[in-house]
Recover the amino acids of this structure.
């Protein structure tokens, strides 16, 4: 391995639009296409590393200056990469404007930090992939080595429609799931196809009693299996407590029932069901209050917004110190991110819950070979780097879709998608119930 092999000569950024089914959440519904950004770090020795992150305009605006600043640096220089990102992205209009904006979104308050770290993570993963390829080592080895050979994932269940409003987007054969029977049928299909052994239902869509009925139906169909329900902070403290009581015998954990650290702490004080979050602990700054108040018992890490695989390990170490569990959150993603999630998850000793993944819902990918789930798990590869290969024709096709888009899909907007079905729809006030 020479210096040339590790020195970054070029960084390519390719925004794409990926087909997405009409999955419902408390904000609205997924649009037919969702933006992702593919990062390629090419070294002077001709090694290419791959990364993937959010692709909305505000992320692209931060990614471009960071890409320019990387040329001439080493793919091993990851601590400096964090500092560089703060320097290059810190003053950008996208970063500073975002600070004041609480998007009321599905992953907590949006901050400049989180935006920057989400961009950084795509570059960090690409550097690790290139470094691993140059060194002949898998990414997990660069993180200190795996402690398991397979990483378990849970079936990610969604209320959904059979098709997008107006028949837009790509068709699939999943059908609608808007009641307990539909949710159970979806779970059965996911379990039979991928072997998943635990189930998470995205809630906050229907009245809590309907979602309780759906989880009860899952418990009957899959007795003894770990079940989770995640309404994305849609409930009041009292509603959260009511649901916790109703489902106390079947839930592995209740995820973000109430949307703030304060409300979560109030719920946690009055139930023994563990509370998980990817909304109120999303940055290092948010850890101290949540952990000292006992507001959460499981943190759902996400290497995208925590700033990469190494930060994910740091988060896991802090959780271990406080006796807080770790699992993994998922947003719509492709195979590069699933590979990155699997590598880092393989290195975290205290990861005791199956991770979330949207991957079964993403039928398009930009890899020559899709990753596969066997018995609900992804095998940890020892192939150098992430162990995935880019299909340039697929990448070009999905980039072409992004270029041709009229702008309506370049920034994720679940409420706008919902208004196509319900013109009166506005993002619900929190708590919704
Ligand atoms: Mg969640």
């Amino acid at each position: 391995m020479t210096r040339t092999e590790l020195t970054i000569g070029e960084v390519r950024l390719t925004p794409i639009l990926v087909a997405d089914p009409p999955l419902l959440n408390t904000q609205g519904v997924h649009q037919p296409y969702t933006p992702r950004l593919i990062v390629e770090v090419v070294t002077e020795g001709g090694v290419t590393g791959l990364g993937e992150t959010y692709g909305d305009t505000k992320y692209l605006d931060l990614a471009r200056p960071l890409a320019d600043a990387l040329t001439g640096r080493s793919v091993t220089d990851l601590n400096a990469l964090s500092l560089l990102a703060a320097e290059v992205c810190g003053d950008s209009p996208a970063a500073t404007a975002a600070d004041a904006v609480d998007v009321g979104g599905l992953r907590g308050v949006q901050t400049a930090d989180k935006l920057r770290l989400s961009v950084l993570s795509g570059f960090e993963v690409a550097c690790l992939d290139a470094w691993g390829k140059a060194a002949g080592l898998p990414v997990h080895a660069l993180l200190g080595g795996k402690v398991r050979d397979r990483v378990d994932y849970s079936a990610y269940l969604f209320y959904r429609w059979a098709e997008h409003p107006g028949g837009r987007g790509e068709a699939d054969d999943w059908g609608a799931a808007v009641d307990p029977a539909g949710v159970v049928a979806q779970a059965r299909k996911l379990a039979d196809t991928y072997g998943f052994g635990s189930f998470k239902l995205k809630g906050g869509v229907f009245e809590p009693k309907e979602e309780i009925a759906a989880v009860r139906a899952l418990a009957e169909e899959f007795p003894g299996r770990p079940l989770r329900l995640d309404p994305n902070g849609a409930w009041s403290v009292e509603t959260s407590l009511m649901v916790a009581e109703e489902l106390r015998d079947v839930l592995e954990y209740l995820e973000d029932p109430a949307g703030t650290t304060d409300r979560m702490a109030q719920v946690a004080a009055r139930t023994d069901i563990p509370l998980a979050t990817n909304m109120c602990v999303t940055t290092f700054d948010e850890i101290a209050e949540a952990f000292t108040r006992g507001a959460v018992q499981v943190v759902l890490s996400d290497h995208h917004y925590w700033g990469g695989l190494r930060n994910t390990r740091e988060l896991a170490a802090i959780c271990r110190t406080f006796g807080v569990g770790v699992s993994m959150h998922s947003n719509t993603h492709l195979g590069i991110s699933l590979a990155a999630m699997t590598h880092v998850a393989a290195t975290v000793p205290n990861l005791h819950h199956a991770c979330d993944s949207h991957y079964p819902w993403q039928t398009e990918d930009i890899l020559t070979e899709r990753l596969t789930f066997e018995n609900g798990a992804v095998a940890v590869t020892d192939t150098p780097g992430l162990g995935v290969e880019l299909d340039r024709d697929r990448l070009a096709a999905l980039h072409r879709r992004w270029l041709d888009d009229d702008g309506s899909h370049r920034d994720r907007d679940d409420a706008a998608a919902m208004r196509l079905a319900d013109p009166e729809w506005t993002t619900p006030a929190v708590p919704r119930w």
